[in-house]
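Question (not urgent): is this output format expected?
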Amino acid sequence: MAHHADERGPKFLWHLANSARQEAAAGIAHLAAPGAKLLVAAFAPGRRVLLPRGMDQQDVIGLFGDTWDLEHTESASDATAPRPVRRARPSLYRLTRKGQADEPPGS
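Got this back:
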């Protein structure tokens, strides 16, 4: 799960307000070199008592699409997962940082 840290400690993207998600995604892109891989694990969007509000493929592309290419998406659940997790439809998104291999991070 993609996360960042602030003065209060690490935060996962799904715990953040939309503006803070955008800032975190920009910070991740700034630190990553071209060609870097990013794996985002997310539950499908929804209102849940114990699970985060979630992100779908459109949300991931909206956050990272300017500086990352979405290479692969897959379900992260199977019949052995607890029912609340299966109902939340977890997915994995693999992205690659755009840019030339000889560019420094933050370009």
